[in-house]
Amino acid sequence: MTILHPNSLVLYKNRPAKVLHSGDKVEIKLEDGRSLKVRPKDVTLLHPGPIGSLSELKPQSGEIETAWELLTGSRTSLPELADLIYEAYTPATAWATWELVLDGLYFQGEPDAIIAASAETVTQLKADRAAKVARAQAWTDFVDRAAEGHILPDDHPYLREVEDLAYGRIDKSRVMQALDMQETPEAAHTWLLKIGHWNETVNPYPQRFGVPWSSSAVELSDLPLEERVDLTHLPAFAIDDEGSKDPDDALTIDGNRLWVHIADVAALIPPDSPADLEARARGANLYVPEQTITMLPSKATQLLGLGLAETSPALSFGLDLNADGEVTDLEIVPSRVKVQRLSYDEVEQRLEEEPFNRLYQIALAMQARRRANGEISIDLPEVKIRVTDGDIIIKPLLPLRSRDLVREAMLAAGEAVARFAARQGIPFPFTTQEAPEHQELPDTISGHFARRLTLRRSQLTSMPGPHAGLGLDIYAKATSPLRRYSDLVVHQQLRAYLRGSNLLDTQQMLERVGAAEAVEGDVRRAERLSRQHWTLVYLMRRPDWQGEGVILEKRGQRYLILIPELDLETQLHLRTEHLPDETVTLTLNRINLPLLEARFRIEQES
Q: Which fold has domain 542-605?
């Protein structure tokens, strides 16, 4: 055991200390003048002394590299090394020698066992330290430039961190801290626009909500061979928006039977297959103005999309109808159909022709029945936003009768399938909605807006129940298995029942649709904010924009106003009183894209 005498030099937590007294405890004095009593094992002797004051430990000049070259690869002690470098072993040279060991470039180890590093190690350490110094200088230079708003191409690695913050992938940013800016996605977005690293076309919202920014790429096998009912002799029509790329439903009328054909996705994607797991994790397709991100691989649409080949596989629902548009019987069959694709506009022009007139009359009867059952109709302006080759196109979605035709057929299929599942005891994700409190509201834009606010959220549940908004006593979403995972589960359950295979039990079914529903919420939020983003970009490119707004309601000192041609809401403080549904002329004032804020003014109130 080393005996520590007063006035000897020791190490305490790798810093020098002077021994004042030694016994069961060692009393030491630190560089800052404090005295401590510590255990003997907590200190290491560097020099027996005497040392009068720690201020004597001044930098020393010696032959460091010469000593290292002589000792390379060998072991020595602190006294020997101090004598070799500084030609003396004193408290000052002992401390200077230990600082070299702490530095670690030439020497490493403990006071009684110091090793001289190899030439290769020293060379690598020097290179690493030079690189570190260079990185530190590059960082300082970048911060100085960034503070002035000047960015160079070599600065992009630093900017990736700010992009990650803007995309919501991280919540801290060294760059934003150094620039004394808020560490928020909005502040990062603002700065990236300011320095020109991003332009207005960058849409951060899908990635900010964790929604994949590329379609599923899971490999799929070919469609299995199976017996299908041949319905190709019946004309079938897939009616959708112009430019739709994933047709998953089609209609046929055959006497008093309405056939609703749905892409037979479950025939290709069984429960817990890789594609099923991927779709479950995504929840639904993401539809943003610039592109569509699909929950299923593109091959699924190629194989199953209705009307993309001469004949298409389908799961067909044969609905037998009475004069009131009620379904009196349902047949469900895997089928083969021959589908013609048409747009809503094309069908609108052909509603006097058959079979479209007959389909429309059936739709009117179905609609009348739902309205008599308390359907809550919401009729507000809607638009479709597309970004094509950098151009933003905003078109109103006109209230076409052809849209009503398709919608009523899909609702009828969802109602019929839900009744079938309930009767057969199939574990199923039923969609329900509680009735809102009754209010007398005008049949105007402001009235429909207020009515929408009264609606309760719909629920996916294993227990059938009414859907108040649709005016249906029972309902399940069943007509979009290419686009929505809960619909795919519906099809998987129906196919298993038809084949006599094992069904998912209630718990398994709820776990699957619950997981997908949680993700689908993020998908829908990403879609909504993406639409707002591109609407504001549309306005930014039209700084002189002027248009009509409709007063919806007064909120405190501000009025909530809807701009129908953009399907955009804004709030304005107006000095004069205005009534709901009054129209005002708005002029664009300014846009804050990262905050999704559009400011307008009314000229006559300026």
A: OB fold (Dihydrolipoamide Acetyltransferase, E2P) (2.40.50)
